[in-house]
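User: I'm curious what two different proteins look like when written out as structure tokens. Can you demonstrate?

Assistant: Sure. I'll show them one after the other, since each token string lines up with its own sequence. Here's the first protein:
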Amino acid sequence: MKHLFVVNPVAGGTNRSTEIYEKVKKAFEDREDSFEIYITNAPLDAIEAVRKYCETGEELRIYACGGDGTFNECCCGAAGFKNAAVTPYANGTGNDFIKTFGEDKQYFFQLENLLNGTVMPIDLMDVNGRKCVDIASVGIDARIGTDVHKYSKIPLIGGATGYITSLVVNVIKGLGQEMKIEAGDVKTEGKFAMVTCCNGNFYGGGFNPIKDANPADGQMNILLTKNISRLKAASLIGAYGDGRYYEVPDLITRVDANKIHVKLDKVSVINIDGEAIYTDDLTVELIPGAVNFIVPEGMTYFDKKPE
């Protein structure tokens, strides 16, 4: 069996390639399996690289050494290959996906636990042909997340200040836009602030819109957030970000469905695990058991029965 470490040298703002190599080299001193390090060259580079490794047919375990974007790319490359399994070896800034697992997220920072892990399938979402592991969304949240990078490049603006600047600018522009939505038995149209499709729990650095979303339950969970006034935005963000959507049923509707189609009034940014695509016609569909996932040793999340 081969172990492939896909290293994003810019994840977390620090190039940890040498550090990761030394840790991996030491870990394999007493192991018979082989390992290889692949350092990414550009965004989306890992998708094709991982796919080529998987196509060899060799039993392969893939470790995404970076953040959510790196893990997404590794899952995109490994999806559909029974000989391959993938996991985050968390080195990014947000690492939102592993927050889904609560206290068990600690194991994704521990190499030995990952190397000794077991394998099970998890679901992915297909977003206009691009795979999504965690959360896909369209609306004000996707606009804010995309524009953060633009404002963070301005002198004296960065980090949390960049996010706040993006938030203020986009709220001023207006929260809602016209959408036609079909999801399960729901057909609706009008102005909506956000549509959020969840396979995992967290995104945007800490927002937790649906607390019971589970990436291995064969179910996609969706929130439809109606257009709101700027004055109501602050109070709604608190309920939405903490998974308390049920407190504002007049504004947020939950739909559990494995496919949603959204027709937008204009080309808009779509968030896919923190990355952006642009379209005015969005389809998100769940793919149950789409990729094999390495469950680190000691993790109990998947042992728990749903409530």
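Here's a second, unrelated protein for contrast:
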Amino acid sequence: MYKLFIKRSLDFSISLILLILISPVFIVLIIFLAIANNGKPFFVQRRPGKNEKIFSIIKFKTMNDKKDEHGDLLPDHERFTPVGTIVRKTSLDEIPQLINVLKGEMSLIGPRPLIIAYLPVYNETQKKRHNVRPGITGWAQVNGRNSISWKKKFEYDVWYVENLNFLLDIKILGLTLQKVLKKEDVNLSEAQTSEYFDGTN
């Protein structure tokens, strides 16, 4: 009952309330990030969602689009804007995903939506992560996120899918808030990037 009906109702209701409550902050961030990124406050990228259906994830844009002499984007740590660094470190860049939740493309809690390029290299067990809506936060995120291997991340994702329930979601929400307040292992630092997943690592 919770997985099929209640979870989606809670996602919609909570996301709507949160967007209304934080709308002043939302607007201020749009203005500052638009100034920092030449009129582009949002980062939009196509990602696979539930049943591998592709959707456009929305985040606040924390890096500019500066390129080197060959036309390639500069390394991440060279492209963070001052305001973008603050937004990333405080996890405020995740706020626009509440819109994805309202639209039914994401859930507040679930496996994080990864890039489309990974779809062909998942094994049959790892593909189970797409049996539910992807989330803004999830079991892997509160158990190490980028400090753990891809194999471990997917184990956490699949375990969540197979054990999804209300109390587990409440636990993940509580741990997420704790990590955000402590600024602990929530977002990539300027010097840390995730290793590309090729199906073997």
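A detail about the second structure: Residues 186-193 have pLDDT under 50 and may be disordered.
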